[in-house]
Write a structure and sequence with these properties.
Layout lengths: L3 E8 L6 H13 L4 E8 L6 H9 L5 E6 L5 H11 L4 E4 L10 H10 L4 E9 L4 H18 L7 E8 H8 L8 H8 L3 E8 L11 H15 L2 H29 L8 H34 L6 E4 L14
Parallel strand pairs: 1-2, 1-4, 2-3, 5-7
Antiparallel strand pairs: 3-8, 4-6, 5-6
Bound molecules: uridine-5'-diphosphate and magnesium ion.
């Protein structure tokens, strides 16, 4: 019996891209020995994408449409796909053709050779703004340093995961999810392959720079206490500075010409320290609020409908 590969495809308003991606995946899987499951996770779309998929699912039993009850965000939509996938391996791929589907063949090749995680690393990133590229490049390097995790530089969520890894990730139920780091944390045999990231086929990004920054911040606070250590370090520096200042005041009182009480310098010190304290309190609050959210232990998402519920996707095919 041939093995099955599930393509987990999270999407939000990608009606123009879905048919193109589906055709490409259909073509690629025709040449592979594994059978396929195309698991489309609708993350709250309001366009015609889900309707097209429903219709297409009648012709191709490999298509499975899972609709979430609202928009939960890309990372949660992928997590839902991982929970529901039936394949012996899962390939996570965006719906907008930025992850070239042809790379799947190379991923499958590595998987057959025994890799449990195959990361697709961006050799180039066409169609992305200068600021996004610069921030991403700096962030990946910083993140590796402070998290001490083997997250490949310039790898997104486009990757193949063996069933063992999928099951490991299914057991990790944290609310703030940063899947590329969670995969690295889980361990397993990881290899990387290079690919050129394409521009979007149609539509606009659902990940503006501020959402990417939010994801990056989630990654840092979920996987590192470095910001808290930095704050403690700055606190110690301020204390030392304060002590030196007091010594200077006392010394100049006895041995120098005495201090002229300076309103401006006092105000400057008060404002600086007040500002720093507020900033650090805010940082502590960030960690605290994350602890609070994790302690609620809510489900990550709700499924509105699942076209493949109860069914078996094994060996599905398209009727022309
Ligand atoms: N996406 C999603 N939910 C969201 C935002 C995005 O499922 O809340 C999907 C989107 O449709 C696409 C993938 O996640 O298939 C990556 O999003 P996008 O292309 O907008 O991000 P970018 O590639 O620009 O970082
Ligand atoms: Mg994209």
């Amino acid at each position: 019996m041939s093995r099955t590969v599930t393509f987990v495809i999270p999407f939000l308003d990608e009606a123009e891209n879905i048919p193109v991606l589906y055709e490409a995946l259909h073509r690629i899987m025709a040449d592979e020995s594994e059978s396929a499951e195309f698991l489309f996770v609708d993350d709250g779309s309001s366009d015609k994408g889900p309707a097209w998929l429903e219709e297409q699912a009648g012709k191709d039993s490999r298509i499975r449409l899972v609709r979430l009850s609202r928009n939960f965000g890309h990372q949660v939509a992928i997590s839902a796909g991982l929970d529901l996938a039936r394949g012996d391996a899962v390939i996570i791929i965006d719906a907008d053709m930025q992850d070239p589907p042809e790379t799947a063949a190379a991923m499958l090749e590595e998987w057959r050779k025994g890799a449990e995680v195959v990361c697709a690393v961006r050799a180039s990133r066409a169609g992305e703004g200068f600021l996004k590229k610069l921030l991403a490049s700096a962030f990946y390097r910083l993140f590796r340093r402070i998290s001490k995790l083997d997250v490949p530089v310039d790898a997104g969520d486009f990757k193949l995961l063996d069933r063992t890894v999928v099951d490991a990730l299914r057991g990790m139920r944290e609310t703030h999810r940063y899947l590329r780091a969670m995969t690295a944390w889980a361990g397993f045999k990881q290899v990387s392959i290079k690919y050129d990231r394409c521009p979007r086929h149609a539509g606009t990004t659902k990940y503006p720079t501020w959402r990417s920054v939010q994801l990056a911040w989630d990654g840092i606070t979920s996987f590192s206490g470095a910001p808290l250590r930095l704050v403690s370090f700055l606190g110690v520096l301020c204390c030392i500075g304060g002590v030196v200042w007091v010594i200077d005041i006392v010394a100049s009182h006895y041995f120098g010409e005495g201090q002229v009480p300076g309103w401006a310098s006092v105000m400057a010190a008060v404002l600086l320290m007040g500002g720093a304290q507020l900033l650090f309190l805010g940082l502590l609050g960030q960690y605290l609020s994350r602890t609070f959210e994790e302690s609620k232990r809510r489900p990550l998402y709700f499924v509105k409908s699942d076209s493949g519920k109860g069914g078996e996707s094994e060996g599905g095919s398209r009727t022309e």
